[in-house]
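Aim 2 progress update. The chain analyzed this quarter is reproduced below.
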Amino acid sequence: MKDLAANRPASDDRLQRGEVLADSIVSPNGRYTLTHSLTGETLLHASTDTVGQGRRMWSRTVGEPGSALSLGLDGVLRAGTDSTVLQRWTGRFRLDPMSFVVSAVVVRNEGDVVLLSEDGTMLFDSRTGAEEARLAKVQRDYERREAKERAKPERPAGSGMAADWFGQLDLSSPFTITWVKQVDGKEALLRLGADRTRIREMTYDDIAAAACTNTDDRPVWCALAVLIDDWVLVIEPCGIEGMERARGMSEGTQTIVYHEGFAGERLFAWFRDTEPVAVYQDDDSDLLDSGAPAPKGCDPKAMMPFMKQIGLGVYRADAGFFLPPPVEISCLIADIAPRLEHFTGTHSGAVLGTW
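Predicted structure tokens:
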């Protein structure tokens, strides 16, 4: 092989025979650049794009550090003297690079690195263009959603229920609140799975303190049952049992459950006598936020009148301090108006170890 110094530097959008990738080649639209670094990495990046300037899109490591990438007059891609470039780019390690003649390496406007044969057909396509198009669509969809959200009016102050009680609870993910109708606090905790011998009178501060005491980095499971009219709110700081048991807890009555997980994932469901009325799971967040019918349940539209009552999907989600929509909707379904004084004093509670 001749000394690489005799090769011409590649230019424009392609590396051709007798050329070396001394600097870079750029797609005709100027958006994508292919370089070969001193560490031996051939890298395609989006140098000027709407998704993120300088974003890495595709790379392959070939040859020893410091070796230059070239396309010989014989049509073989090499990194220094290493002729396995075609194998490494394609992932076809049994391929004999000497049996495939490459006429050019091309960077296309769509963001693909393509190897062309002598007759112009493709020997290899990095297929990064399809991913680039997908990411661009994701960005456009996100921007449309954001613009639509910003265009919504703010929810009028004072149009919602009192929210001071929820703020006082100071719940952070994960937590679960389960509304249970026509049972007392002790019965609600038993339905949640509490041992009868561990149920005692506790304050919310007692429960919150217990929930913050981890054992071997495992959260402590505890719950407080607060009676409001003919419903009980079972509050689990750092708890998940209501999410798992709400359906069974509704036997002979009704339950509503709202769970928010470690990563902000949500479950919102309404059960009557173990029958799911309407259920929104984490994948249904868009439906929940827009006030659309639930994808599961015997009456998917059951929650919609309450969603409309608070203007869910109409007002900006980040305007003012209101109860989280699932909490407010649950209280509307139950026809109760929690107040700060409901959560003072002692109530039936239980601390039941770790989960």
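The domain at 4-133 is CATH 2.90.10.10 (Agglutinin, subunit A). The mean pLDDT is 90. These observations will guide the mutagenesis experiments scheduled for the next reporting period.
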